[in-house]
Amino acid sequence: MLRYPLLTRYSDYDTKGHVNNAVYLTYFEWARVQSWQQVARRGGISEVDIADPPLIVAEARVKYVSPANIGVALAVEIGVKEIRTKGFSFVYRIVASEEDDRLVAEGETVQVAYDYSAGRTMPIPPEMRAALEGM
Amino acid sequence: MLRYPLLTRYSDYDTKGHVNNAVYLTYFEWARVQSWQQVARRGGISEVDIADPPLIVAEARVKYVSPANIGVALAVEIGVKEIRTKGFSFVYRIVASEEDDRLVAEGETVQVAYDYSAGRTMPIPPEMRAALEGM
Amino acid sequence: MLRYPLLTRYSDYDTKGHVNNAVYLTYFEWARVQSWQQVARRGGISEVDIADPPLIVAEARVKYVSPANIGVALAVEIGVKEIRTKGFSFVYRIVASEEDDRLVAEGETVQVAYDYSAGRTMPIPPEMRAALEGM
Amino acid sequence: MLRYPLLTRYSDYDTKGHVNNAVYLTYFEWARVQSWQQVARRGGISEVDIADPPLIVAEARVKYVSPANIGVALAVEIGVKEIRTKGFSFVYRIVASEEDDRLVAEGETVQVAYDYSAGRTMPIPPEMRAALEGM
């Protein structure tokens, strides 16, 4: 698992002072971008694929465990679960980092390797697989 | 199922010209608000609960089926699935309304009745249950 | 001036129940897209330029006049002010449409015609000028 | 002027790969929150007013100077300009921090001190004035 402090924005909070439910998918996306930049740079991935990995998100799931009020410091953890031939899952935990890592939300996204030039899914390239295994 | 045309915003689209994955949860939320206003008004629900129903979202799930490029007209369908004692599910379909309702995304959210003054979950109030059964 | 009902989203509202200040620029953008689609279709503009007009936003300004609480129906009005050689202004009014058009916010954006293939500003094309003059 | 690195999100970028024009107001807001937390903590301001300062935004203005493409590291600078009896201005610069601080956007917001319990504007409280003068 990799872990990053989350910088929330005032506009992330709803009328009840909680992070809006849709924003968690944005936090997950942010964690994906951060972690991919980090592991891909170590792994001989081309600059093009570091900036814009050949992946599409096929599914997303969030479980809202406890509310994140404005002022509560958050962190996001991301890990890789189950790498198959063409797809794999990221798993996420959002925690209240100054409250003993109280669990705020957890979730999962399924990604599929995608050849944008051919317009179809493809097997995960070996160097991407190696980078993901190192997360 | 209730159905509404979706008014997308330019900022919903990402660098590839597709609706960003997190925005679908915002579309689902919009469909919840629209449909709740519609069914609650017919059902003798108090104005307070029409404006702000005593519910929290406990889980959300999206499956991304085909991309929604900028310029593609979208509609959202929402229905109720499985009403239990304290919770129930909304199910959603996002379709390309001018392309034979090609399925763009589908999903589900689980809601739990919540007594905000007591700060705890509660059984679904009978008039809310009746309104949901009419969807 | 052209006028459109605004479909707000729950996530537009902040912790005080007001439309967040940044969201007004999104409402302005939405009004630009709607009005451009409407006037450009009448005016012999190419499909490419209807979908994606050769313009960049150079400046934006918002004046927040009165708050828009959740539940208040809004409309946006957009007009063209001062068409110069390369640029022109849109002016906007956001009103509470069920409260005698109480003024919520007003603003202005300056657009400049931009030749994306050449990577530089250009004079406003004549058919775009004609379409804008009809707004 | 205070300065902060900006953590952009993938959803901030539009179909052309640029930061969407409305998002700059969110960046300005983020800079206000960061800088207020920083200066207010030094200045004997109550915890309530640190978390939620008694201010409303009355006007905002952005000038878009050069585009911020995805991958370009950004920083935001914020300063105070002209403190009057009831209101004052923040000024902002968004710069490309790894490109010799190339100016991407600049802007200004006008804030007015607001007594939320009384529902009306008020003179800027002396300790808020002192904190702002220290920015």
Describe what this molecule looks like in 3D.
- The structure is a homotetramer of 135-residue chains.
- Chain A has 135 residues and is of the alpha+beta class.
- Chain A has one domain (2-133): Thiol Ester Dehydrase, Chain A.
- Chain A has three helices and six strands.
- In chain A, strands 1, 2, 3, 4, 5 and 6 form a six-stranded antiparallel β-sheet that branches.
- In chain A, strand 4 (87-96) and strand 5 (102-115) form a beta hairpin.
- The longest helix of chain A is centred in the N-terminal third of the chain and has 20 residues, at 23-42.
- Chain A is elongated and about 45 Å long.
- The N and C termini of chain A lie close together (6 Å).
- The mean pLDDT of chain A is 94.
- At the A-B interface, helix 1 and strand 2 of A face helix 1 and strand 2 of B.
- Strand 2 of chain C pairs antiparallel with strand 2 (55-64) of chain D, so a sheet runs across the interface.
Task: Break the fold down into its secondary structure elements and pairings.
Four copies of one chain form a homotetramer.
Chain A: E1 2-6, H1 23-42, H2 47-51, E2 55-64, E3 74-83, E4 87-96, E5 102-115, E6 120-121, H3 126-133
